[in-house]
Amino acid sequence: MVERKLSPDGKSEWTGSEWVPVGTEVHHAPGANVYTQQKIVDSVIMGNLTSQTIVQNSPEDMAKAMVLALEQIGFVGNVQNSKPSNQQMSNVQNLLKAGDKLNSQGIKIQGSTDLKLGNAARLTGRYQGAMEHYQRALKTFREESNRSGEADALLNIGYLALNQGDVPGAYVNFQDAQAMKLELGEKNGEADVILAMANLALSGNEYEQAQNLFSQALEIKESHADENGVAIALNGLGNILESKKEYEGAQLHYRQCLIIKRKQKDLEGEAIILANLSTVAERLGNMSDAQRLTNESVAIKRQIGDRRGEAFSNIQLADQAKQRGDFVEAERLYKMALKMKKKLSDLRGQSDTLNLLGVFFEEQDQFVEAERYFNESLDIMRQLGDRQGEGIAQFNIGNTLLYRHQFEDAQEKFELSLRLAKTVNDHEGHSDALIQLAAIAEQGQDIQRRQTLLTEAAAVLRQNNLPVTGWLQENGF
Question: Greatest CA separation found in the chain?
């Protein structure tokens, strides 16, 4: 008989084939510990995750099975940037529970597995759990003198900091990771850090720097035939070109990315890129292409059960219907998207859709109806504690009052929006509020104040690396 080993927490014993509660008598039929071909259905993992996976009853084999399951749902490398789909979400949650269970029993998990679990936690918004996995991986790699793994852990810790708005923290970790990759001569790993730096630059609206970094990473990833990295770089470049209104260049990059996503059979990624291509086609005035691409994206999202993605596509279709003048269809699709967001309990998504409905009615001079939707959005933003979202809602309400010549009430809303924008460093919101306050000054014949406010609005954008476009540019500010 195998001598039982007590787990560090004193709650479980190792029988030679599995961990059981202390004091439990377990009897196995002969041969119960052999490898079997079956689905992983375990009380720890709680669900059918992969099929035809070799498993055993030992905790070590459970850890291996977790790695295979993570890889099957897309967590392949040590750095992960794309979110799991809704269909994958429950499996991710179960795997995180499995990792916690194994750790509580004192079972050593490989650093690379902890990184994958950390990525799964981060990409599903479980930031505290993600940090625990990353820190444990970092400790493991340092104990093993694994500098490459240590760099990967620092890189992911940096991404976590970026997700939480800690730009200085992200920068420090990215820098340390880059120094290690350079020291080791790992060019492909260095490209992972360059992609991280590109995303960091993008978050600060430093478009030229971000574009240069994505281009550097793309060249390295192509030379290493790293298709996943190439796709990330292409999509990043497409996003930047789209933001710069260079739509044909964005379209080219998105199309190249789409080829890779289809080759990889990444349906979630394919649906996202199709949606991006639809937006670009819309900007180029190719409305029939835009609608076709959106419908293709919707079909994939329905196939994989991505209800959030489907709601987003309904909004795209509503925008397209509005542009071709079919306002009845546009209203129907916006309201359908709102209904889906409510079913998903997606408060942020509800707020965004309410804003779109408000704009929709505002454009048709139905200002009372528009204000109602903006106020509903404001209530949700307050509930979420989203100060930027609250500022945007106040700005939109101010517009409905301005259009109805309720200048005093409108000014109050714009001033409140301005204060909120300053608080959260929303520079575009800051500039927009100044422009509308200038419009009210003009109504009161205060031309000097109007000029001062518009000059300040343009300065806010330039000081924060944002382009001065539209009305400000056309009027020499």
Answer: 95
Q: Residue 39 corresponds to which tokens in the numbers above?
A: 């689905």
Burial class (CB in 10 A: 0-12, 13-18, 19+), 236: buried
**So what's the pLDDT on residue 477?**
77
Mean pLDDT check: name the lowest of 185-194, 271-280, 330-339, 462-471: 462-471
Helices (H), 27-146: 59-72, 86-104, 111-123, 127-143
pLDDT digits 0-9 by tens, 152-200: 999 989 988 887 778 888 899 999 999 999 999 999 989 999 999 998 8
* Strand, helix or coil for residue 14: strand
Task: Encode pLDDT of 325-344 as tens digits.
Answer: 889 989 998 998 999 888 88
The C-alpha atoms of residue 235 and residue 357 are separated, in whole angstroms, by 29
The single-letter code of the amino acid at 317 is L
Instruction: Return the structure tokens found at 208.
Output: 């030229």
Distance, CA of 421 to CA of 283 (rounded, Å): 28
pLDDT tens per residue across span 340-374: 888 888 888 889 899 999 999 999 999 999 999 99
Structural domains for the chain? 58-164 (1.25.40), 373-477 (1.25.40.10)
Task: pLDDT band for 49, please (50, 70, 90 cuts).
Answer: very low
Helix boundaries (H) for 144-206:
147-163, 167-184, 187-203
| Per-residue model confidence as pLDDT tens digits over 425-452 | 888 899 999 999 999 999 989 999 999 9
Measured CA to CA, the distance from residue 274 to residue 278 in angstroms comes to 6
Q: What percent of the chain has pLDDT over 90?
A: 36
Mean pLDDT, rounded, for 32-37: 28
**Kind plus residue range of the DSSP H or E element containing 12:** strand 12-14
Please give the single-letter amino acid code of residue 358. G
Query: Buried b / exposed e across 360-399, counting CB within 10 Å, b at 16+?
Result: bbbeeeebebbbbbbbbbbebbeeeebbebbbbbbbbbbb
CA distances from 131 to 42, 149, 158, 302 (A): 26, 16, 10, 33
Is the Cβ–Cβ distance between 283 and 302 less than 8 Å? Answer: no
Q: Contact, 120 vs 72, CB < 8 A?
A: no
Q: How far apart are CA 382 and CA 375, in angstroms?
A: 11
**Calpha distance 190→184 (Å, rounded):** 9
* Sign of the Cα pseudo-torsion (119, 120, 126, 130, in order): negative
Give the span between the Cα atoms of 380 and 390, in whole angstroms: 9
The structure tokens listed for 10 are 């004193």
